[in-house]
Amino acid sequence: MGDEAKIFTLSEVSEHNQAHDCWIVINGKVYDVTKFLEDHPGGDEVLLSSTGKDATDDFEDVGHSESAREMMEQYYVGEIDPTTIPKKTKYTPPQQPHYNQDKTSEFIIKILQFLVPLAILGLAVGIRIYTKSG
């Protein structure tokens, strides 16, 4: 690596997305991994699918060894301009209204939840008493 790293935009790096010219971005650094495609243990498709974006999460999720991290230095070509990488947005599900299909009031539902089991219990006790006396 030289003293002054070349700065690339994400769109510049994205142009290098073919098997004969493949660049990826990991931890803010740009790597030309074209010569490594055939030797990559996960296959060239893994690297090719990581082009055109910040592949840091993809790289870290796999859990690469320390020797793999050291090997990356020989493919280093520069730094990425962080302002060109889109910000990650956290997914928040939309707020949904409380679902009450038949529009029955909450109060009636609570009363029924109490009375129906009580009625079943009373019926069971009544049947038990009736069948014992007969």
Description:
With 134 residues, the chain is an alpha+beta fold. Helix content is 38%, strand content 14%. The protein has 5 helices and 5 strands, in the order βαβββαααβα. It has helices spanning 10-14, 44-48, 56-62, 66-71, 106-133; strands spanning 7-8, 17-18, 21-26, 29-32, 76-80. Strands 1-5-4-3-2 form a 5-stranded mixed beta sheet. A hairpin with a 2-residue loop joins β3 and β4.
- From the N-terminal CA to the C-terminal CA, the straight-line distance is 99 Å
Give unreliable regions as ranges: none
Helix content: 25-40%
Mean pLDDT over the full residue set:
85
* Widest sheet, order of strands: 1-5-4-3-2
Number of DSSP helical runs:
5
> Compute the gyration radius: what is it?
32 Å
Main beta sheet? 5 strands, mixed
The count of strands amounts to: 5
Shape: elongated
Percentage of residues in DSSP E strands:
5-15%
SS content category: alpha+beta
What is the N-to-C order of secondary-structure elements (H for helix, E for strand)? EHEEEHHHEH
